[in-house]
C-alpha cells in the first residue's frame, strides 16, 4: 500500500514539473550541493521515521502512538530556530501549541491503562478515569517501548522538515516532492520485496491506491510550496491541521459522528490556525 501510494504521489509531482518547467530545471538544479545535501539528510531521516513508525505500531496500540506523534509541532519550534534561525511570533507560538493540542485530542481513542500508583495517590479517585483517558499516551512513555518510538519519530520529523525546506528552496516544490516520494517508494519496495510481500498483488487495489497517490501528490506539492512563503514552524504545523478537514469532510460526506471531545479538538486546531496568521 505504502509503495503504490508513494509511487503515485511521486509520479504526479513529476508530471507537474514536466508540464510547467519541462526537463531543464530538473537537469540543472538537482545536481547541486545546495539540493543534494539537504535531500540526502531528509531522505535518511525519513527512512528512520518510517522504520520507527513501524516499530511504534508493533510495540504499542495506535491509540497511544497517534497522539504522541501529534507532538511534532512543538519540537519544530525549537529545531527550526536551532537549524534555520526561524522563530514564530508570540501568537504564532500559541497557535502552534493549539494545533498540537487539538491534534492530540482528536487522536485520543480512550485506551484503558491503569494510572501509576503515585498519580493515583495524589488525585481524587473519581477523576482517575478522566485523567487516564487524557494522559495515558504521555504516561505510557515510561513503560512502553512503542510510545518512546512514537515520540522519537515526532522528534525526527521536526528535524526533517527543516531540510525539506532547504531542498525545496534549492529546486522547487515539484522536484523535491517527486524525488522524495520516489525515493521512499523505492526503499519500501526493496525492503518489502526481500520480505516476500509482493508475490500475489491485488490488481484492483493496486490501481485504486495508485490513483489516490496521484491525487495526493498534487496536495503534497501545494503543501511544500508553503516553504517558499512561510517559516518551517508554520508550514510544518499547518500540515498537521489537515486532520481538522478530515473531521469536517467525514461528517459531511460519510455522516460520521464525533463526540464532544473531537469537536473541541477541531475547534482548538481552527483557533490555532487562525492565530498563526498574526
UniProtKB/TrEMBL annotation:
<keyword id="KW-0472">Membrane</keyword>
<keyword id="KW-0812">Transmembrane</keyword>
<feature type="transmembrane region" description="Helical">
    <location>
        <begin position="231"/>
        <end position="253"/>
    </location>
</feature>
<protein>
    <recommendedName>
        <fullName>EamA domain-containing protein</fullName>
    </recommendedName>
</protein>
<feature type="transmembrane region" description="Helical">
    <location>
        <begin position="204"/>
        <end position="225"/>
    </location>
</feature>
<feature type="transmembrane region" description="Helical">
    <location>
        <begin position="64"/>
        <end position="84"/>
    </location>
</feature>
<keyword id="KW-1133">Transmembrane helix</keyword>
<feature type="transmembrane region" description="Helical">
    <location>
        <begin position="35"/>
        <end position="57"/>
    </location>
</feature>
<feature type="domain" description="EamA">
    <location>
        <begin position="9"/>
        <end position="107"/>
    </location>
</feature>
<dbReference type="GO" id="GO:0016020">
    <property type="term" value="C:membrane"/>
</dbReference>
<feature type="transmembrane region" description="Helical">
    <location>
        <begin position="174"/>
        <end position="192"/>
    </location>
</feature>
<feature type="domain" description="EamA">
    <location>
        <begin position="146"/>
        <end position="277"/>
    </location>
</feature>
<feature type="transmembrane region" description="Helical">
    <location>
        <begin position="260"/>
        <end position="277"/>
    </location>
</feature>
<dbReference type="InterPro" id="IPR037185">
    <property type="entry name" value="EmrE-like"/>
</dbReference>
<dbReference type="Pfam" id="PF00892">
    <property type="entry name" value="EamA"/>
</dbReference>
<dbReference type="InterPro" id="IPR000620">
    <property type="entry name" value="EamA_dom"/>
</dbReference>
<feature type="transmembrane region" description="Helical">
    <location>
        <begin position="90"/>
        <end position="108"/>
    </location>
</feature>
